[in-house]
Amino acid sequence: MRFAQLVVGPAGTGKSTYCSFMEKHSQIAGAGRVCRVVNLDPAAEHFDYEPLADIRDLISVDDVLEAEDLHLGPNGALVYCWKYLLDNLEWL
Question: In the chain, where are the structural domains located?
């Protein structure tokens, strides 16, 4: 049986730390289970694990903030990235 967890929350609350722990735990005590992490946070800076898929490979907040023609702040850049992902779902 396959299952998934969707980990969401404000910045700095430990989402990446939790995912890192779960990945390590599944390797040690997973009884053959494989844990894969998909990053859908275009503003994430670094991980101590390699995500299976990472939205930053498609678009990142930094890409949007540096685009001179968009004139968006950090929140607008996040929304833009998620809309861009929705417009490019085949990437997943």
Answer: 15-91
Contact, 49 vs 20, CB < 8 A?
Answer: yes
pLDDT of residue 21: 92
Rounded Cα–Cα distance for residues 49 and 66 (Å): 27
Q: Give the C-alpha separation, 90 to 86, whole Å.
A: 9
* More confidently predicted of 3 and 56: 56
pLDDT tens digits, 47-79: 999 999 999 999 999 999 999 999 999 999 999
The model's pTM is 0.83
In one letter, which amino acid is 37?
V
Amino acid letter, residue 71? H
